[in-house]
Fold these 2 entries.
Entry 1:
Amino acid sequence: MMRSTLSFQQGGNNNGAAALTARQKPVEWSDAAAIQAAEIRATAQSAATLNARTAMDEDKTKLADILAYATSKLPGDGPAMWKDAEGVTGAKMRNDPYLTAHPAGVWASIAAAARLNQQNSFK
């Protein structure tokens, strides 16, 4: 069985090599999730790069723009769980030089959704 590899490079990505490596492998749910995560991450990284070069805050890409894109790409059949909130929090902290988490950030939204889903599962 051939495994695909997906590696992002500065200024582009190596999706073509991954496609060549894995072209005969049937798509599994885990593959779909990995592809979605990579696509959304690439979009957010591109926005962060552009924002670093943009002087005016009103011209910068906002979290709502990325989250709207992510929502349209993610499957609607899986409720947010605590492991999702932990994963998002870990990614945020690993990539934030100040180790801060904004109370209205992505992690807070995922944690709130997970909390609601957990409460609803007990009803």
Entry 2:
Amino acid sequence: MNNNKHAVIFFYTAVALLLYACRTNGSRGLFEPEPDRDHRTVLFLQDVGPQVISPNLHQFNHKLTLLATSIENTIQLMQDSNEAIDFGDAQENWKTTMLHWQRLELMQIGPLGSYYDVIGGEDRRYDIYSWPISNRCRVDMVTINRDYQMDDFFDSTLPNVTGLDALEYLLFGDINSSCPEQVNINDDWEELSELTIQQYRLEYAQRLVENIQDQTLALIDIWSIDGGNYGLKLLDGSIYRSRDAALNDIFNSLFYLERFTLMYKLSEPLGLGCCSYDYEDCMLSAEHIPSGLSLKAIEHNLLGFETLFKNGNGYGLDDFLIDMGHGDLQQDMLSRIDKAKQSLEGHEQSLPQLYQENPDEAVRIHNEISSIVDFLSSDVRTVLNFDELYIDCNGGGD
């Protein structure tokens, strides 16, 4: 990513996002002899790549391939009929693709992580999904100007018009422009037919999927044993100053469940966080408004959390706790995860819809996610002796 993109992401994260500050790049010793600690750390680190990151990237890439095919088929149908058509098949494929990415959101380790907060971070996540700095009006501007046709489009534009969130708006967005009246594209937009708008949006969507797949294949290569073998870098000291520092960084990635899922996706829309406006205005900050996928996204964040906590089918933090003599903590954490999963299962409506129909249920889901975060940041972190993360409504850290 170029320096301009780094500057933009830093600006948004400093002003709009809820950042956290790690008080150290590594962790202190566990409350056990160092040889046992190091052995368990190695068991955990050696499984992260093959058990968690690589298989999830491959599954995501497969879903992207299906999405690309469905968009191509939709374009062909529109060309054959020469009239505006339903995007239903492409929309359904986008949903399955997006939900799998919501699991990967919890796995922002190394290059996928933040350039400013994660060891080895390269902000590659923003090339795939930029929410909450999405900008629908800018997507409309790119659409009507057909900037997506430029050869250097992905090198010269900001990430909030190139990812899965931009793709969501292209496939689910209203036929009208999202730009305010003072933006000078509205007159030109109104002159376009519905067929032309759909044509432009599908052309744009096709380019986005191609680029997202390119970014995903690059990540697959980074983690592949035959490629960059990033899993080995967790162990060999080439990037992390110690294996303990690598473990600490992976542990910190679990706090996406607090920094984004709990705070941005639940607390803010429900008026339980930093939002000081009325219900309607707070709900405008909910994720996936065009597709109505907000509750499903939270469910899949939780599934991603569980996958990383258990390290897939490998040696996970649950095993770590048992081997340290804290099986009670392991059982407590898994019980909290299962309880929240049961509450989220079966909800087809969006978070705003659930809150209108059953506000107590929406708040209960918030509280169950909060219970997981609280337990992770207190008992589990105390046993592992990691440093506390700092979160502030103004986006600052100490």
